[in-house]
Amino acid sequence: MNQTLFLLLILGCLSGNAQKKVTATTYKVEEKSVAATLKFLSSDALQGRLAGSKGLETAAQYLEDVFVKNGVKPYFTSYKDTLTNYDKTTYNVVGYLEGTDPKLKNEFVVFGAHYDHIGIEKNPTTNDSIYNGANDDASGVTTVAELVNYFGKTKKNKRSILFCFFSAEEAGLLGSQSLAAKLKKQNFNLYAMLNFEMVGVAMKRDILAYLTGYGASTMGEKINEYAGKKLVGYLDVEMKYQLFRRSDNFSFYNEFQKPSQTICTFDFENFAYYHQVKDEFEGMDIKHMTAFIQEMIPVTDKMVNAKAGDIVMKSK
Q: Which residues form the Peptidase M28 domain (predicted)?
């Protein structure tokens, strides 16, 4: 064997080994990546990301670029899915990663978060008038963007994945309602929908996060099984404020009657600036967010690759 051929074989083996190492257990979520996305989305330049505004349009383009750089295709003719139920032109931003299994790829897992917020205070009482929405919900959007980074690199998802950034959530879940209704008409085969809402600050509890509608399906139990520990649980305050019905998961549950739930770390004790101008990047716990997303990587990986019927609704 000549020396050149020998070197090529060695390099090929090294390349193959390096590729194999990109798995759910070895993949590392980078703190600087989390911070960069969150900081951009919650910056003053986006003017509070009100649905239909130029600021939200800028955010939409940023999220499109996340899809493009990771090889995630549009589900429709473009990444922008125009809302049918809002008075101004605004878009969900939707990406699609086809599954690798001949049968399971016909089932979809939806990962979502809303990228809109409430804009600018018309009658400010301080010098700050921008509702930056760092926790609500740039933190959830950042989480989904990091899932795009992971699945885009590995592309080892047996089920197909729809990554959704919803607009007009703050106007009454309008973006997710518009999309879920459209998908229902297309006979979209939903396996499960996992939504991320306000995950920018850690809870001081024995669980990392809570899952809305915990007892309605096996999703919470399976998340903990996939994690190998008690990662999520039930929070009493959820029932008090009807949180299952107050985020974009509910639109999908309403249309499909399939496991559709929201994961959250805002527990009404750890964050004082809900819908206030002080919901800013500087108040977010980037280390917590990075650790949270790191925990979500193997969980979501197992979710999209689990056997048929692993996550199901519980009978009432």
A: 92-293
